[in-house]
């Protein structure tokens, strides 16, 4: 068509990449318990028993979970599978995904223990 500017290849690629990134973010697993007071209280109890030894109230031997910017999905994956090359063990045999979501709800509810 005449008179109508066509998008340049670079613009089209950038728009397509942005659309793909938005679609990937929309498909990410989100914690369904965030903001629920009962979940936060239960998560705090689990944190006291399983996490505080390494992660403390604002980081210790492990990173400060309260300042972490990792996604909900990455949090779940890391707790269940651990992190190779670090002291973070896999908790998949000791904690259910629901328990991990409870801990995550607590961690996201405050800036420190």
Describe the structure.
There is one protein chain. 53% of the residues lie in helices and 0% in strands. The radius of gyration is 20 Å and the shape is globular. Helix 2 packs across helix 5 and helix 4 crosses helix 5 (97-109). It has helices at 9-27, 37-50, 52-55, 72-81, 97-109. It is mainly α and 113 residues long. The mean pLDDT is 84. It has a domain at 37-109: Orthogonal Bundle (Cytochrome Bc1 Complex, Chain D, domain 2), CATH 1.10.760.
Provide key terms for this protein.
5 helices; mainly alpha; single chain; 113 residues
Biggest beta sheet attributes: none
Uncertain segments:
none
Give the overall shape, derived from the CA principal axes: globular
End-to-end CA span: 62 Å
CATH architecture of one domain: Orthogonal Bundle
In short:
The protein is mostly helical and 113 residues long. It has helices spanning 9-27, 37-50, 52-55, 72-81, 97-109.
Topology:
Blueprint: H1 9-27, H2 37-50, H3 52-55, H4 72-81, H5 97-109
Helix pairs in contact: 2-5, 4-5
């Amino acid at each position: 068509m005449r008179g109508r500017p066509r998008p340049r290849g670079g613009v089209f690629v950038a728009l397509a990449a942005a659309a793909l990134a938005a679609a990937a973010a929309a498909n990410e697993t989100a914690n369904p318990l965030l903001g629920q007071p009962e979940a936060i209280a239960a998560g705090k109890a689990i944190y006291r028993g399983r996490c505080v030894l390494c992660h403390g109230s604002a980081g210790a031997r492990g990173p400060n979970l309260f300042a972490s910017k990792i996604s909900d999905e990455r949090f779940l994956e890391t707790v269940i599978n651990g992190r190779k090359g670090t002291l973070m063990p896999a908790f998949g045999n000791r904690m259910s995904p629901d328990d991990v979501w409870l801990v995550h709800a607590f961690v996201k509810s405050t800036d420190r223990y």
